[in-house]
Design a protein that fits this description.
The chain is mainly α. The protein contains six helices and no strands.
Length: 130
């Protein structure tokens, strides 16, 4: 690929930007899941939900927020790593961190796949850094 004079091909910058955008989408998704978790948790605890007599209702309904936490926290964490890795790729910092960030952007499928490809192909730009 043609260089722009500074030893950069543009693929690494594109991979970093895609990683940042994918990570930002994941962080937003994780925050939405957290808001839903809190909202559903409050709804379960505060709203009078009629259940038939018995003990089964108290064990089934509160599982919903816990399930959302299991999905939301890793999504949020992967998004943070993707953003940090994208910034590292744009600055041509460390290849391992940049590639890890691109891999963590994979839950946002098309952006993550392109970020991994662009960062992987641009490995030489990390080695050529002054």
């Amino acid at each position: 690929m043609a260089s722009n004079g500074s030893g950069r091909s543009g693929l690494l910058t594109a991979g970093g930007v895609l990683s940042i955008v994918g990570g930002a989408l994941q962080v937003i998704g994780g925050l939405i899941v957290a808001i839903l978790t809190v909202g559903i948790g409050l709804l379960i605890r505060l709203a009078p939900i009629p259940f038939p007599p018995g003990d089964w209702g108290g064990h089934v309904v509160p599982c919903v927020p816990f399930w959302l936490i299991i999905v939301g926290v890793p999504l949020f964490a992967l998004g943070i790593v993707a953003i940090v890795g994208g910034v590292s790729a744009i600055r041509r910092g460390r290849f391992g961190l940049s590639l890890a960030g691109a891999i963590c952007a994979l839950p946002s499928v098309p952006l993550g796949i392109l970020a991994v490809i662009f960062v992987s192909v641009s490995k030489r730009e990390f080695e050529a850094k002054e």
